[in-house]
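Handout, section B. The chain below has 204 residues.
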Amino acid sequence: MNAIGAKPGMTIADAERVFQEAGPGYAQDVAAFLPICKAAAEKNQRGEVVALPVINHLRKLCVAQGIINATRHSFRMFTGSDYLVRMLYDNFRTMLQRMNSYGQTAHVIVVNGSATGFQNLSQECGNLRFVQAVSRDRTHALDCYFTSDKRFCLEEEGNMPLHSNAPANCNPGKLYLQDSITSLMNRRFGAQWSALTDEDLPAC
């Protein structure tokens, strides 16, 4: 995991290129890394929140891919765009096919941004539901996050618009590893979904 780093001066475009070239190898690293870290977090006896820093865009793409590849039963996402699904379309499609085998549906809220990628994915896979919303207050960054099952939560710290020349260390994130934190974020998403749709999501 430590090898997944952005070099000084790396841009978003650089990170995307490195990810596309070396993604499969990074995916194997993350697949081995996540269960070890999660086991250590759950053994924490002091009640502290365990969060791993996701310090750059390259690492964020790798971690997101690893979590999506591991998702089985529940996926809930609050985001400002369809960027991640466009970058990881095949991974999302495979995740939805896997979830469908368990009779499960993914849920996504897109605020202020494009949802075209989710729309295309929803048409291809019937078990993705998404809603679009417009925030009245656009002066503050969205608190974007997604949860996987009751196992992982990846949250962004800031939501700068992504463009190719932006520094790769913009919008760092945190990976929460404890079931209690993911359950909390799932309840938060459920409240946001209900506010937009008047529909209660099942607990997960």
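Note. The longest helix spans residues 12-42. Compare this with the example in section A.
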